[in-house]
Every structure is written in structure tokens, then in C-alpha cells.
Design brief:
The structure is a single chain. With 183 residues, this protein is an all-alpha fold. It has eleven helices and no strands. It starts with a helix and ends with a helix.
Amino acid sequence: MDSFIQKFNYLGAALGISPRMKNFVDLEEFFLEATLHIENDNRMKQAILNWCARYATLLSPSKIRRLCSLIKHNDENLEVIVHFLIERSYVKHNWSILVKRKIKTRINFHENFKKYLKSNDFIIKNVSEIRYRAEGRSQVISDILSFTQKSNFGSLYQLAKGIHSPRNRVNESFRQLQAFGVI
């Protein structure tokens, strides 16, 4: 739980003070991990829902679907969160690939970004994983840039594994970034 709260605070939650994360945090992996903690207490639940309302548009539902078989998560909570995001139009309908059944959500949600989340200015300055996506870069490019800033890797295979992305897309994107001197 402490590891989750540390990641969550780094990614923008206002749940206390945590040291800055020195390792890459995969946003989709974090999203799945949040399904395990949403029922801990009401403050955590509201913080997770506010974070999802603000940042879910930056996530890749297809990557989340791929990670479902690799990352421990709660399927029922995942469906509830996805239905909540779709019903309130925080995300597009393509997120429905993550749900198996239609349910009507009855979530007690209090949208209050100031209370539960850090400011966007703080996030843009301190959280590269979110900043690159907010700037409009693709999920693969954003993850490559964030990962290479924080971690060393020996091969493109290790890079692809570290960011949970298909090797062919990582190879192509990495070579493009190298060709233009970005990396």
C-alpha cells in the first residue's frame, strides 16, 4: 500500500508527502493497480476517481487491455471505473473494450480537483509520464522519453518490456527519436 500511495502522490494525488519517484511509472499499470485500492477508504476512492476524471483521456485502453493478463487488478472495480468514465463522458466510447457487461454505476463521486489532486502546473513540471502525453505525444513515444530519462536499458527489447509496448512500435519510434536527435 505504501508503494501505491508513493506512486499515486507522484502522479498527482494530494494524499500527503512522498519522495519523488526516480523510476519510471507506467500510467496504465498504475491505473490497473488503482482498482485494488479504490475501496480502501472514501478519501482514497475520491482521489482515484478525481485522478481518473482528469487523466484518463491520456491513457490507452488497448494497452490497459493487454496489461490485464499481466498486472494484478480487480476486474469488478475496473468495470465500474470504466463505466463511470464513459457515462460521465470523461473518456470516449472506445474504452468499452475494457468491459464485459453493461452495468449502471452508482458511484458517490465528488469532483474536487483542488482537494484531491495537485495542480496541473505542478504535474507538468514534475511528472514526465503525464507531461509528454498531455503535450500530445503518442503513448509509445511518451513512455520511451520518460523511461529513458529515468532508467538505463541494454537493448530495445528491455525498453519495450519496461514500457509494456510491442517491440516493433518501440523499435520504430526509438529510431525516429534517435534520427532527429531527441534521444
